[in-house]
Each structure stands twice: as C-alpha cells, then as structure tokens.
Request: fold
Amino acid sequence: MITTAELEHLAKLARIDLSEDDKKSLIKEFDSILGYIDQLKKADVKMDAEGRVGAVKNVTRPDEAVKTSAEDRERLLDEAPDREEDFIAVKKIIAQD
Amino acid sequence: MKIDITNLTIKKAHESLKKGDFTAVELTRSYLNEIATKNKDVHAYLEVFDDALEAAKKADEIIADFNKKIGSADSEKDFPMLCGIPFAIKDNILIKGKTASSASKILEHYKATYYATAALRLAKEGAIFLGRTNMDEFAMGGSTENSAYGPTKNPHDLSRVPGGTSGGSAAAVASNMALVALGSDTGGSIRQPSSFCGVVGLKPTYGAVSRYGLMAAVSSFDQIGPIANTVEDAEIVFNVIYGKDAKDGTTIIEGVSPTYPLKRIGKKKPVIGIPRAFMSLGGIDPAVKSEFEAAEKKFKDMGYEIKDIELPANKYALSVYYILNFAEVSSNMARYDGVKYGLHVDGKDGIDDYFKTRRAGLGREVIRRILLGTYVLSSGYYDAYYNRANAVRRMITDDFKKAFEGVDIIATPTTPGPAFKIGEKSNDPMAMYLEDIFTVTANLTGLPAMSIPMQISKEAKKEKATQLPLGLQLTARHGDERTLFETGKDFLGELE
Reply:
C-alpha cells in the first residue's frame, strides 16, 4: 500500500534515519495497520466543521512574563547537550561559500 | 515491629502511623526491603530513590508535630492522609531533581527541572516516593516490552507481561513493592495493566487531573491516575490529585466529583448497562466471558438493575483511537531533537544531527507511530484520516451520552484476555493494538473509567479456566468518579 519512496519521504519529514531493514519491516507493518484503520472509511459520518475540530477550546492566560529563579534557569540550561555561557549552542545553519 | 504489608491499605497505614504502631521510616524500609528482594525478578522499578528514607523521616516529623499539638489550642484534626505513604511513580511524571526518562534512551540522563502538579500535590501531603517505574517508551505499547530498559514481568507469572504502558506501577503495587502508585492512561495504560496484575486502576475524567509535568503522548487523551490495592485507596489518591491547575489549561473545575451533583437513574443502586454487541467484537477469551457473566450475576444478586445498551459507533473506536494517537504522537515527539535536552548524536550538519539523534534515541514503536502520524496528517490523507477520525470520535461520544440517559454505569471486561506471554505479541503491532479494544473509548470520550479485579473469590478462581487476574471495567458519566468508587467498593465488598 505504501511505497519505499513514500516511506522515505515521511522519514525525511519526521527527521529520522531509517536503515534498509527498518524500511522493509515498516512497509509490512504499515500495510497491516492501515489495512485495519481503513475500515473508518465505511463509517457513515457527517463531516461538518465542528466534527473536524473536536471538543477543544482555547484557554489563554494573561500575557505576563513568568519569573524563574536563577537556580531553575541554570538547571534548564544544564540539560542542553551543548552550551556556551547562557546560550544553547547549535551548529551553523548558513554555510560560508 | 514486623509490618504486614500484604494486607495494608492507605487508611490502615495512616491509623498505624497515628497510633505509633510503626513509623514512616519503618514502613518505607519494609517496602525498600521488598523491592530489594523482588525487583530483580519483576523489574517494576527503573530506579529506587536514595532519599526515600529521608522523606520518610520528614513525614515522621510532621506526625510527631501533630501528636505534640494534640489537646493544645492549635491542635489539628488529623495529619494529611498520604503523609508517610510510600508511592511508586511512573517514569513519565516529573519529580524535581530526579531522572525522568519515559523509559526512553533519548531521555536516559534527563533530570526533571520541576515537579508535575500531581506529584507535587502528593509531596505536599508528605507522601514518600520510593522510585520511578518502568513503562512502554513514551507510553506507547500495551505490555511494557517497549521499554528501552527491558520488560517488566507480571508478578503473578514471571513469563507473562504485566500489561502496559504503566506496567511497572501496576506490578509494583501487585507485588507489595509500593502501597500505591501513579500511572498515566492514554488508551488503557492504567486500566489494562491493573487488570493483568489484579489491582485497581482509575483513568479519571479528562481534565480532572492536571497533566503539567506529565510527558505528553496524546494530549487529547492523556490522564494521570492512581493504581492501588483497593478502590478506597484509589479514591483517596484521586481526591488529592484532582482539581483545577493554572498550569494545565485542560483542567476543569466544574462537574468533577466529589462535588458532582448526582443525577442517577437508579433509585437505590446505579443502573448498569452492558453493550453486548460491542463486547462480541473480536476474540474475547472464554475465561473472560465466563468471569464477566459471573460478575453480571453478582451485580444482579446484589440488587443492581442491568440493562442492555447499544454503542453502534464503537466498532470504529480502535481505528479512530489509533489515527488520533499517531497524529498527536508525531507532533508531540517533535520536541525530542537533541538540542534543548536529552540525547544528542552528531551528524554532518545541524539537520543531520536531528536524523541521527532521533534514530539513536527513539525505539521502534515510537518511530513507527511518528511515521504513521506523519502519514495520516499528510496533505491528501488528512481528510480521510484525521478529520474523519475526529468526526467519528464525536459520534462515539454522542452514543455514550445517549446510553447514559438510561444507565449510570457501563460495564465491560477491561481486556479481551488475561496477561499474555512475553514476546507473544511484540512483533505484531496490530495484535498489540487490538488489546485496547475495550479501554480506548474512555479516552476518546473523556469519560472516567476504572478497572477492578473481576474474580469473585479465590476459591472460584481455582476452578476457573485461568489463574491469572482479570479486570472488570466500569465507565461512568463525565465527572462522576463518585459512582465508580461506590459501585467498585460495593462489588469488591469494601463497604462491609
């Protein structure tokens, strides 16, 4: 039902490396899972706007800064795999040509 | 003194702590000893906290302080019910300063920087956290076999799974390695392991308990709830952890028990509805069928009115559940990118870091669901899957609303069969998904549901087709946990 190219595209969107073995088993598993959930297509249901959104509504809070203690800030930063002073460090995303 | 932890409840422990039969330190030590003996076989805990005894000392100080004030002007009625009570906490619920890994490699060394609201409410009562319990990675699975740290075993039969995803919490309570535990339930993750391990598990009404500090799996389904030896214990814990929390916008204030105004159909006892057509869907084990019939008879003998009900859209429940599960999982898992916290694996550039990190840190089931979610949310499939699933979700919710116009409780088995063998279903994701057939509806509808041990007596159990525990699932109206507790206690003889 799903092709290797389609699966590779999904993996690219989801940012996950897949081995050739992964792909083989995933294609098989997709078939069995999608084969099951496809029975939903038989459901006689009205596709109105309300149904699409689901039973959720927005909850907002006042737009105020939340105070964090220096200690908690340090703890948060310490969880980062790569840190430079008070910044989380990542690789350059603009190449120099 | 030697504490008999095999027969302990929260109330009994509380009374003993009050009378001075034993201290919180002694009680905690009893559980730690049990863990030291059993955990190597059962593997319910990923980590036993080294400061549990320290917390117990603090609890003893609160109790001593209470005792000192008795008779004086500022004496209090009682110290908190959960003070000194030893808990097991699922590994996806944050306790500040402790590792919380969701049983994933990607969070192996992650230390929580804040408290989950539910855990904080327990801590404020003086509860003791014994350790963090094993689970299916990021709460995806049904057997605890998807843990990156190895499976938990069912204490009733070590060759079998304890269920999942809160398998460690259920196994810990069932084997007296904790008096009570917190789990989380996305599609049955509290109720199914409770059924497999022979304990009580409650999935509260959606919005009853704050999920702040619970690692998100499926945000429109997830709830934290108690796993306990008795319905009364589950109720006591629920009464501490439920309630509005400014840090979780989905928490509700109105219409949640125990303040819920009862609108019962049954005059004396709740009316019980049984969805027979729904229950005949898919292979239900003969042992489950006969135990359920016996439970039904017991309810009748106790004076309950039983009605047959129809839940026609339920035949689509599992499809709807998994489509929405995959979709929400794929977006919730996007946060694990190796930048802000957790595992980081270096690639050739910034983008490649993501690919390498996520492949190395996430397990097979998590990757499978992320990809399936990406698929059902892709343009071209979005209407056929995601939108359609939401529309059918509403149909299912409407069916339940209609059913509750005539009944107060809906009863089904919790699972189609007893605990299965380790490895039996781990290579067939679809077979594993079918385990959730009876439990997912409570998450789709947001209704409260509880699994209680279904076997009527130990003697009866001996003659039955299976020696393994089986669960009876009770579902109530939105916010009506109270009817669940009352009915559950009545069925199990806790009111006598």
Notes: Residues 345 and 360 of chain B are 8 Å apart (CA to CA). Residues 1-496 of chain B form a domain with the Amidase signature (AS) enzymes fold (CATH 3.90.1300.10). Chain B has a mean pLDDT of 94.
